[in-house]
Amino acid sequence: MILGLKKEVRVSGMSQWEKLKQLDTKYLEQLHNLYQDENFPMDIREYLAHWIESQDWDKAVTNYSLATIHYQNLLDHINNQYSRFMQDKLFVCQHNFKRYRQNIQAVTGHCHPVDFERHQNVEQKIIALKMSVQACEQELKFLEEQQDEFDFKFKTFKCQESNNSEKQKEEELKVLQNMLNILDNNRKKVLEKFGEFLSEAETLLSTLVKEELADWKRRQQKACIGAPLNVCLDQLENWFTTYAVCLFQVKRLLKKLEELGEKVTYDKDPFKIKRPILEKHAKILLTNIIKSAFVVENQPCMPLQSKMPLVLRTSSQFAVKARLLVKLSEVGNHLMKVKACIDKNSPNGKGYRKFNILGTFEKAMNMMDSKFGGLCVDFRHLQLKEQKCIIGGKGSNEASLTVTEELHLISFETELVHQELSIKLETCTLPVVVISNASQLLNSWASVVWYNMLCSDLQNITFFSNPPLAPWSQLSEALSWQFSSNTKRHLDPEQLNMLAEKLCGVRENYADCCITWAKFSKENLPNLNFSFWIWLQGILDLIKKCLEDIWNDGNIIGFLSKKRERSLLKHKPTGTFLLRFSESCRDGGITFSWVEHLSNGESKIRSVQPYTKAHLNNISLSEIVRFYKVMADENVPEHPLLYLYPNIPKDEAFGKYYLEPEAGSELQLKYNRYLRTRLIVVSERPPSDVAPGMMDECLQEDFPMTDFMDWIGFDTDS
Q1: The pTM is what?
Q2: How far, in Å, CA of 407 to CA of 149, rounded?
Q3: Which of 51, 237, 351, 614 makes an SS bond possible with 396, Cβ 3.0 to 4.6 Å?
Q4: Residues 481, 219: Cα–Cα separation, whole Å
């Protein structure tokens, strides 16, 4: 975030925000591009302009303590502005600033001091590398001047040799020999400088590729399955580009040394032996950095499934984007065509499906698809079509994998030509799952989550031949990401404990538990006809379609065992209720449970039959809670739901979700021959203590049975 602010200040030349907004259209477009990333939106830059422009962002980039202070101050200013919007009743601005605060916290919340220090270490090494190149260039210039002086004196000596006496010749030869000795010594020093540079560059290459790039790839894996991690490539691109520029410069300097060696050479000339070795070393380092710099920036994704990348459906379009992290203006002049293909090195097992890529699968890299001028290629309209296979069938491969466990790789090939270098480049996506039917989507997504949660080998397409166990510490984190990436709320430890109980049984501690792939997504839950994963995805879909606002605001506990539910409610006042998800609905269901205290002092926990998407599409949960009634002994309806756990009055908790009465409705009643109706839910309480319209948690373990009075009640509102 701080690096982004610093970049904006550099682009703007330290001008004020108002001046920036008055720039010509072509520069305004660059400004818009700069703020496309929602991690730091333009709204914040606009409203907090005075404070932002008064801070020393250059210093914050290199000072972790100061950066932390700036971050906390930024949150304070966002909060203050948010409060002003509330006072002025600017609803949209209020909503945006609340979301921005959450986004900024999500991104920076994962920046550990160790990572910051590591990045600063890389920055220092990059700076040192640039200084080493400059030192090499200065040494070469000094050497060239020295050699020109020697060359001039030597040629002068040759021209005057016939006119000089033997004594003069001897004296001049001694001078020339001394100069040559010094020149030879300096040539060795220059070569040592270049050798030191290349050793330094080799160490840095390992850091960039094996640590920083590998870390980015791992973060990208996690981000694909919902982790709130920053996978922006700008910093890596800056490092890779600076590194490559330094190496290309050294390559030119080594070529200059070759020219100097051709002008002046002698026996045991170190240029003849050591310079070719150094040049070869430089080419190897350049080749390695450029090959490593070709990456997949955006993994394959169908447009309507942006939250489920890496699951592709045949005959459906998908997009994928590759990027070269070495930004060289000269390279842009060379047409780099990138070709996409699938399963270039696929297994030949029986039944393993083969596909063809349709659409424009060959495109030239350009700088238009990148925000800041990098080389990218964006494939936006690719499709997969299965090849006809005579032997075997879908999902019948030798490893007995199902279609949703079969992994495929999409790869990209191109060639970079620059400064006498011709380098073949290739990169590939993370493994994708290819389906032909929408019913396979959720199981395919389970495969994507399991793979990217556990596998560090990014091309292991036989992963599901022997899938590893998942430690609960990793799985619980990935399960929480499913909710935080689709809503604005993650799962808390108590909710995760309930999920752990469903997978591992009742235990005091789940830290050491490991879950099998089959238990996670293939085996049915006890006494049910669906798996844990299908059940969880049904609940997530229910939240997204019917409950998102109530869920985001924390009014749904959701994942709660019946034992825990009773312990929470039994000592609360009569009418205290909570919302939890059904454990028996395949496609997601939600119920509410409340406590009643009988005259004999006993407490009873009542629950209503779960509501599904079919119910909630007709009447919202907030309206159900608002008007829910139970028929008392004398057919007098009463409202049993009074306080949302722990002690929030029902209307205070749910009032903002209620449907407001139509304007002028009371006036209209005077002239309307019909009474208005309202859709409500009523449960009937029979004379006995435990009604079939409710449920005593002691009598039934799974879910309650409720008598819906056709859902329809009449309310005159008069």
Answers
A1: 0.78
A2: 67
A3: 351
A4: 13
- For the beta carbon of residue 16, count every other beta carbon within 10 angstroms: 12
Question: How many angstroms separate the most distant Cα atoms in the chain?
Answer: 139
Report d(CA 478, CA 221) in Å as an integer: 11
For 254-296, what is each residue's pLDDT tens digit? 999 998 888 888 888 889 989 999 999 999 999 999 999 999 9
Residue 416: count of CB within 10 angstroms of its CB: 23
Buried-exposed string 560-579: b where 16+ CB fall within 10 A, e elsewhere: bbbebbbebbeebeebbbbb
Q: Decide if 682 contacts 713 (C-beta within 8 A).
A: yes
365 Cβ neighbours under 8 A, 6+ residues apart: 322, 324, 336, 337, 338, 375, 376, 377, 414
User: What's the token pair of residue 330?
Assistant: 């000269």
Q: Output DSSP code: residue 429.
A: P
**Domain of residue 131, CATH code:** 1.20.1050.20
DSSP 3-state of 435: strand
Task: Tell me how many domains the chain contains.
Answer: 4
pLDDT-derived band at 370, boundaries 50, 70, 90: low
Residue 718 lies in a domain: no
Structural contact between residues 463 and 407, judged by C-beta atoms closer than 8 angstroms: yes
Please name the helix (run of DSSP H) or strand (run of DSSP E) that holds residue 380, with its range, or none: strand 375-386
> How, if at all, do strands 576-581 and 643-644 pair?
parallel
Query: Domain containing 71 — which CATH number?
Result: 1.10.532.10
Question: Which range of residues forms the domain containing residue 708?
Answer: 560-713
Under 8 Å between Cβ of 591 and 608 = yes
- For residue 146, count CB atoms less than 10 angstroms from its CB and return exposed for 0-12, middle for 13-18, buried for 19 or more: middle
> DSSP characters for 235-287?
HHHHHHHHHHHHHHHHHHHHHHHHHHHHHS--TT-HHHHHHHHHHHHHHHHHH
Is residue 524 domain-resident? no
